[in-house]
Specification:
The chain is an all-alpha fold. It folds into two domains: 84 residues; 36 residues. The chain contains five helices and no strands. α1 packs across α3. It is elongated, with a radius of gyration of 24 Å. The two termini are 30 Å apart. 1% of the residues are buried.
């Protein structure tokens, strides 16, 4: 993987979300979550399946879900932006002249579908048709 050219470090939130997403994406984290759920379920009979017993899992899962939404969205936004940057660089190198393609992520669904259909037609027509 290429190292950044500049001396600029990502901000604290970016470093945090990247590290968190990397750790939480491992199988052992999923296994730990399943173990917590099994332990919680096993305590049900001991605590007479009380409201407090239910509240513990409901509160815990709600908090984790709420926070994970922001972590996932942040990492997804950065991944998407990096992908667009790389695709734009490839398009520039290949001398793609269709300006609409460079900004396609900001177009509406109808325009994206229109461009997709145009490219599909050009691909079916063969290499003589340009994008």
């Amino acid at each position: 993987m290429a190292q950044p050219q500049g001396n600029e470090q990502p901000d604290v939130f970016t470093r945090f979300t990247t590290a968190t997403a990397r750790v939480l994406g491992h199988a052992w984290v999923f296994s730990a979550a399943v173990a917590v759920l099994v332990a919680w379920a096993l305590t049900g009979p001991l605590l007479a399946f009380s409201d407090t017993w239910q509240l513990v899992i409901n509160t815990g899962t709600t908090i984790v879900t709420f926070l994970m939404v922001f972590i996932i969205q942040n990492t997804q936004n950065r991944d998407t932006a990096a992908l667009h940057l790389k695709l734009d660089a490839l398009m520039l190198e290949l001398k793609v002249s269709n300006a609409k393609l460079y900004d396609a992520e900001n177009e509406g669904e109808k325009e994206i579908e229109r461009q997709r259909a145009r490219i599909a037609r050009a691909a079916d027509a063969g290499p003589s048709e340009g994008v």
